[in-house]
Amino acid sequence: MKINISKVKAKLSKFVNMAYHGARIVILKNNLPLADRVPHQVEKKRTLGLLVGQFTVPDDFLGEEDQINSMFYSDDR
Q1: Confidence band, pLDDT 50/70/90 cuts, at residue 29
Q2: How far is residue 29's CA from residue 3's CA, in Å, rounded to a whole number?
Q3: What is the phi-psi region of residue 13: left when phi exceeds 0, alpha when psi lies from -120 to 50, beta otherwise?
């Protein structure tokens, strides 16, 4: 359903209720789509630790390389 923004302003609660019941509403301004009003989707709770044991951090993870430092700092170190 495509609705002009002026009609949405006048009857917002009606269109929110329609979206709540599953209607997809495209809000237009000068016949150009501005926004989609769709039913709210509850986000799933994130599960921590999905990659436990699948990745190991190398011992030199925070180490610096002289060649790369010389490119950034022009051997001023």
Answers
A1: very high
A2: 9
A3: alpha
